[in-house]
Design a protein that fits this description.
Layout (H helix, E strand, L loop, with lengths): L2 E3 L5 E5 L2 E5 L22 E2 L6 E2 L5 H6 L11 H14 L12 E3 H11 L22 H9 L9 E3 L1 E5 L3 E4 L20 E5 L4 E7 L5 E5 L4 E5 L3 E4 L1 H8 L4 E4 L3 E6 L3 E6 L3 E3 L10 E6 L2 E2 L2 E2 L2 E6 L4 E3 L6 H9 L17 H10 L9 H7 L2 E4 L5 H8 L7 E4 L2 E8 L5 E14 L2 E13 L11 H4 L2 E4 L3
Antiparallel strand pairs: 1-27, 2-3, 4-5, 6-7, 8-11, 8-14, 9-10, 9-13, 11-12, 12-13, 15-18, 15-23, 16-17, 19-22, 20-21, 24-29, 25-26, 25-29, 26-27, 27-28
């Protein structure tokens, strides 16, 4: 019988503000990929050629039914605001945009740009990198991209510009839209990708590329290069309406497409905040909301109608265990999207979007999330039985961390097996000494039993369980 072993293929490992993207061929269990389950009552159903659990255990109704006081509000908004401040203090990536100082020295901005390059900082070649056609990226191209940072254009004192994102767009480590895939056999993991930003996200522009096509921006949770075509510059007063909107909708669906004047559409992902033009529900159960539009690089807002349905909620959702469950299950089966690519989520953006729909602002990357969690349970020094017992102490919605990966805890099945939901990349099977790699690239439900290439079970690789609730 084949022994299924999970292998970590692509993870972000953060050291302060720097990143390393690794392919760990020794198969670190559970990192950015799925975990299989041995379930009993009800019996598990596995998708063909997949480690994903399907059936009842992959439905929100199963878990909400088995969660005691699942609809009890755990944190009022005032406490959430305090938690958000605490996480900003503990994280090196989260910033308070409302209080952000837009006046910086050229040296400070230069250091920010270099730090944002992560693995590429100080490098003269792109290493193993392939373009969209699977061809090796030339060193000359890499040098041109680095030169496009326009560091020599940084002089004196810098005054940032207030701006808004006008369409879902990529934030890049360097000013290029060209792909730098690190595996020619799987053109999905772009090493230049930092994250994705949704429409109506406020940012601060601190510098522009030599070719005038990109802006170096500070967002609420990341820094990097954004296409100028996706930015609308505005004044602080209008910008503040997006930083701290008085009345707003939060996107509660995994994805929400909004029509802008019948001319085009914009895509929002879960947790996105859309300011309201009126706090009163309009005829035909619609809301009037603002969507930022760019005209010659400057903000021109459009007022749009958004139907009052279960894809949006006025204000943040209540922070409850059942909402952690319901929100996570809305992504079930969605494609794994490294750094927000493919209009989807990776492991850390998956949990960040869930939490943000309830007003909790997590850092973007898994290691920063682990550092920022207000409360945590540690696994260091525990044996396997003690680790299982420790996991069961965590509340529903807690985040389980191991190097480079994060999963959300759902609870226990009828036999006491803890299950998680997460955005998964791939897994391996081993049969008669033959190894086969299976890309799954989905959001799925799994357990903590699968081994890595060194026969270390996922449960034994956990570093902590983090949570915000009491």
């Amino acid at each position: 019988m084949a022994n299924n072993i999970v292998e970590l293929l692509h993870v972000k490992i953060r050291k302060g503000s720097l990143s390393m993207k690794k392919k760990i061929l020794t198969a670190v269990s559970g990192c950015c990929l799925g975990l299989c389950s041995m379930m009993f009552s009800p019996l598990p159903v596995f998708a063909a050629d997949s480690i994903a659990i399907t059936g009842q255990l992959a439905t929100p109704s199963y878990w909400t039914k088995h969660t005691v006081n699942g609809d009890k509000v755990l944190l009022p908004q005032q406490e959430i605001n305090t938690i958000n401040r605490t996480m900003r203090e503990k994280s090196t990536s989260l910033v308070d945009l409302a209080a952000y100082n837009i006046n910086k020295s050229a040296a400070d901005v230069k250091e920010m740009i270099l730090a944002a390059q992560q693995d590429y900082r100080g490098e003269e070649t792109p290493g193993e990198a392939y373009d969209a056609n699977g061809k090796q990226v030339p060193t000359e191209h890499f040098k041109q991209v680095k030169a496009n940072c326009n560091l020599e254009g940084l002089t004196g004192n810098i005054t940032g510009q207030y701006a808004l994102i006008t369409e879902r767009t990529n934030m890049r480590l360097l000013p290029t839209a060209d792909n730098y895939f690190d595996d020619v056999t799987c053109l999905h993991y772009d090493s230049m990708q930092a994250t994705a930003l949704d429409p109506a996200e406020p940012v601060i522009i601190l510098h522009k590329s030599k070719d005038g096509a990109f802006a170096f921006c500070q967002a609420r949770h990341y820094t990097g290069w954004v296409s100028l075509g996706a930015l609308a510059v505005t004044d602080r007063q209008h910008w503040q309406r997006y930083v701290n909107p008085k009345d707003f909708l939060v996107v509660t669906a995994n994805k929400k497409v909004v029509a802008v004047g019948g001319a085009w559409t914009v895509l929002f992902q879960m947790g996105s905040v859309i300011p309201l033009a009126s706090n009163k529900l309009q005829p035909h159960d619609t809301w009037l909301a603002y969507v930022p539009v760019e005209v010659n690089g400057v903000l021109s807002e459009a007022t749009v109608k958004i139907t009052d349905d279960d894809s949006v909620h006025k204000g943040f959702l209540p922070c409850t265990q059942n909402n952690f469950i319901r929100q996570s299950m809305k992504f079930l089966g969605d494609e794994y999207g490294w750094g927000g690519m493919d209009d989807s989520v990776d492991c850390s953006s998956f949990v960040a979007d869930i939490y943000r729909s309830m007003g909790i602002e997590l850092p973007r990357d898994a290691d920063q999330q682990e550092l920022a969690m207000p409360q945590s349970l540690k696994f260091e020094g525990l044996n396997t039985a003690q680790r299982f017992a420790k996991v069961k102490e965590a509340p529903v919605g807690a985040l389980l961390f191991k190097p480079g990966h994060v999963m959300m805890y759902l609870g226990q099945d009828a036999k006491g097996n803890p299950l998680v939901i997460h955005s998964a990349s791939s897994y391996f099977t081993f049969d008669k000494g033959q190894k086969q790699k299976h890309y799954i690239r989905k959001v799925l439900v799994s357990d903590l039993q699968f081994q890595n290439g060194k026969a270390i079970k996922t449960i034994d690789g956990l570093t902590s369980a983090g949570f915000c609730t009491k």
